[in-house]
Model the fold of this input.
Amino acid sequence: MHAILVKAAIGALVGVLVGLTGMGSGVLLLPVLIFGLGVPPIIAIGSDAAFSALTKLGAGFLHWRNGTVNWKLTQFLALGSVPGALGGVLLLSHLRTAYGSEVNNILRSVVGLLLVCIPLLLLFPVTSKQPGIKVVELTRKSWIGISLIGLFAGFLVGMSSVGSGTIILVMLVPLIKCQPSILVGTDIVHAVILTSFTSFLYMRLGTVDFTLLLALLFGSIPGALLGVRLSTILPSQWLKRVLCVTLLITGVRILWV
Done:
C-alpha cells in the first residue's frame, strides 16, 4: 500500500509540474521512475508511454471540440511518426533479444542523452529567419519536411517514450506559422495518436506495468488540475527554467557515470 501511495504522489507531482509549466510528462516522469523508484528502464519507458497517451486524451478532446486542431498537419506528422515509432520499438525489441538485461544500461544512456538535449532545446529554442509556412498553405510538397520531423520524433518515442510533444513542438515553431493554440492543439492530438500506437506496441512486448500506471494516473489527474490553477499565480516560466537546468544536470551525471 505504501508503494502505491508513493507512486500516486509522484504522479501528482508530475501532474502539477505539467499543468504549471506545460512541459511534457515523459521528460519529467521517466527520470523519476528510473533513477528515483529504480524501475527497470525498459518497463519505465513502456509505462511512461501509456501514461502519456492517457493523460493527453482529455486535452486532445478539448482541442478537437474547440477547433484548435489542424488535421492536415496532424496527418503529415503521423505519416512519419507512426513508422518511426514502429522502427524504434523494433530496434528496442532487437536490443533486448541481443543483450538481455544489458538493454537497460543502453536505455539509461539514451535517456541521459535526451535529458541533455531536450532541456537545451527548451532553454535555447531554435529560431528561423525565414517566414514560416502558414497552415492554410500546407500542400502535398510540405509533407516531406513535416513527416521527417514526425519520423524523427516517432523513432525517439519508440526508443524512449520521450519526445511525442516536446520535440515536435520545438521543431514546428520556427517552421509553421499559425496561432499558438492551433499549434499546441495539433501537437497534443498527434501525441495522443503516436503514444497510443506506441503503447500498444509496448504492451505487445510486455513492458507496461499496469499497477504502476494506475497509481501514477490516480495522482496525476488532480495534480494536473492543481498545476493549471497554480499557473495563474506562480512564475511558471522561471520554474520551467529551473526544471530544465535540473534535468540537464541529471542527464550529464547519467552520461558521466
